[in-house]
Write a structure and sequence with these properties.
By secondary structure, the chain is an alpha/beta fold. It has seven helices and nine strands; from the N terminus they run βαβαβαβαββαββαβα. The chain starts with a strand and ends in a 10-residue tail after the last helix.
Length: 234
């Protein structure tokens, strides 16, 4: 059994679902590091708009190790990582931009699954920008560094988007892919002994900003009109 730290908040709606996937792969004891900056009303409204209630609220298992910290970058969190001898940390919804000290505290590093295909789609609204540009939608597991979505890539999964899939359906399917791939990637890293230093660095790439509302509506319309036909490189 390997202890893995999860950088998250107490009321993140996807946390119970992620832990379910993690427990299914086996051999992992989660240690929850719960930042005081919790999942707020603005986050909840955005999540509801994307998912339409598909992920019903669930209570956390009271038997889990759950540690409240004021800030994931703060001394208490760093101390908890060392005390529990956590070789690997996982970004499971931290509200912080993770600093260099925390990135270097766990022996292996910090793993993230980004909702976009790296290195092309970094930053915000990556599924929406990919659809707008006619590219595939997917998720990428990578080790985090001080940049934005710029750390070494562990692997990528492309989402199958059938013709006629509506926006909320796509977003729900993408979240589910993100959860399962995170659990699989944690297991892969632990079993293989993979570290960031064994992987090639990402090339430089631009970072996308949140998609404007008018373009988001166009993305939704293209899906509804069955006009999204992603071009997959040979």
């Amino acid at each position: 059994m390997r202890s893995v730290g999860f950088l998250t908040t107490r009321h993140h709606p996807l946390l119970p679902y992620l832990l379910e996937q993690v427990m299914a792969v086996g051999g992992i004891e989660p240690v929850l590091l719960l930042d005081a900056r919790d999942f707020g009303p603005r986050d909840a409204a955005l999540f509801e708009g994307r998912t339409g209630g598909a992920f019903a609220p669930r209570a956390l298992d009271p038997g889990l190790i759950a540690l409240d910290v004021s800030d994931h970058n703060g001394a208490a969190c760093l101390r908890a990582v060392r005390t529990h001898e956590l070789d690997l940390l996982v970004n499971a919804g931290t509200p912080r931009r993770i600093g260099a000290e925390l990135l270097g505290t766990a022996r292996i590093g910090v793993l993230n699954v980004h909702p976009g295909i790296l290195p092309k789609y970094r930053g915000a609204s990556c599924p929406e920008w990919a659809i707008y540009h006619g590219d595939p939608v997917g998720v990428t597991a990578h080790f985090m560094d001080t940049g934005l979505d710029s750390g070494p890539i562990v692997g990528t999964r492309v989402l199958d988007v059938p013709s006629g899939m509506e926006y909320q359906q796509l977003r729900i399917a993408l979240y589910r892919l993100q959860l399962t791939f995170m659990a699989q990637s944690i297991r892969l890293v632990l079993d293989s002994g993979l570290t960031p230093g064994q992987l090639s660095p990402q090339p430089d790439a631009p970072v996308f900003r949140p998609i404007p509302e008018a373009l988001l509506e166009e993305v939704k319309a293209r899906l509804t009109r069955r006009e999204y036909h992603p071009m997959v490189a040979a």
